[in-house]
Amino acid sequence: MKHTILGFGCLLLMGLSGQVGAFDEVQLKKLKSLGNCPSCDLRKSDLSGVDLTGANLTEANLSGANLKRANLTKANLSGANLTGTNVTKAILSRTYLLKSNLTKANLTESNLHGANLTKAILTGANLHGANLTGAILHEADLAEANLTKAILTWANLTKAILTEAILSGTDLRFTNLTKANLIKTNLTKANLTEAILSHTDLRWTSLTKANLIKADLYGANLTGVDLTGTYLRSTSLTKANLKRANLTEANLKRANLTKANLKRANLSRADLSGADLTKADLSGADLTDANLKGAKMRGAILCNTTMPDGSVIYSGC
Predict the structure, then answer these.
(1) Nearest to 203 by CA among 148, 163, 159
(2) Residue of 31, 118, 111 lying closest to 68 (CA atoms)
(3) What SS3 state is found at 286?
(4) C-alpha dihedral over 181, 126, 132, 58, to 10 degrees?
(5) From CA 152, how far away is CA 132, in angstroms rounded?
(6) d(CA 25, CA 92)
(7) Of 22, 24, 38, 61, whose CB has the highest number of CB atoms within 10 Å?
(8) Where does 88-183 show beta strands of DSSP type E?
(9) From the CA atom positions of the chain, what is the Rg in Å?
């Protein structure tokens, strides 16, 4: 009798352990039949290729689920749990993902055109080659996310967190990154033409060979940033902090650097022709072989500043 009870207990435990972390079969059938399943438990479910256009999945648990190539156009996934979910090549155009959790989700080459990801958590998520054109990512957390070669034109990333994220070769034209946190972010060869980065924190970020033509960096913090060979033609850097920044061979033609902080910045071989350096602080800056033809330098601070010809000026000390 004792052995029978123990055997039954083991079988019961085995049955329960098999259900741990699994989805609710009844709720999965409900979703497939009705197309709606708010607050449902759909963990690790296989929804690959399923058409869920306009579905209501608010606060649903889809962690670890397979949504590869699924169609979620205009679906509502606000507050949903999508941690570790496979959303590769899925269609999420104009989908609502407000405050959703997409930590470490795989969104490679997914279509998020016009999606609303306000305050969504995307830490460590893979968005390689994803289309986020016109997407709303206001206050979204994208720390350590991979956005290599993703398309973010006209996207709203105001106050978004992108610390240590990878945006190498990413298309960020006309994107609004006002007051975003991009500390230690990789923006190598990224296209930021006419992007808005006003008061954005870009400390220790890599912008090597990035395109920032006509971008707005008013009051941005670029302390220690690598801007080697970067295109900054006609860019607004008014009151920007470029202390110790590396601007070697950067193209700053007609750039506005009024009242910019360029203390100890490396501007060797940079093209500053026609640039406005009015009241800029160039203390300790290196301008060796830089092109200053037609540059405006009225009121600029020159203290221990190395000029294009190698001479050092202390007049502003």
Answers:
(1) 163
(2) 111
(3) strand
(4) -100
(5) 5
(6) 24
(7) 61
(8) none
(9) 26
Structure tokens at 108: 């490679």
Distance of CA 256 to the CA centre of its chain: 25
For residue 116, give both structure tokens: 């609303």
Render pLDDT for 210-224 as a digit per residue (tens, 0 to 9).
Answer: 999 999 999 999 999
CA 242/CA 50 separation, integer angstroms:
50
- Which of 194, 195, 169, 265 has the alpha carbon at shortest distance from 223? 265
Number of H helices, E strands in the chain: 2, 2
Q: Cα-flanking dihedrals φ and ψ of residue 111, to 5°?
A: -105, 105
Instruction: For residue 10, give both structure tokens.
Output: 């083991």
Q: What is the DSSP string of 117-159?
A: -TT-B-TT-B-TT-B-TT-B-TT-B-TT-B-TT-B-TT-B-TT
- Give SS3 for 261: strand
Q: What is the pTM of this model?
A: 0.88
DSSP three-state, residue 221: strand
The structure tokens listed for 192 are 């930021």
Report the alpha-carbon distance of residue 258 to residue 235 in Å, rounded: 11
pLDDT in tens, 72-100: 999 999 999 999 999 999 999 999 999 99
Residue 310 pLDDT > 90, yes or no?
yes
Token pair recorded at residue 239: 């009151």
| Token output for 107 | 């969104």
**Spatial CB neighbours of 13, under 8 Å, sequence gap ≥ 6:** none
Helices (H), ranges, 180-295: none
Contact 89, 70 (CB under 8 A): no
Tokens (6 digits) for 180: 């975003």
Residues shown for the chain: 317
Find the largest Cα–Cα distance for the chain. 100
Cβ atoms of 113 and 91 within 8 Å: the answer is no
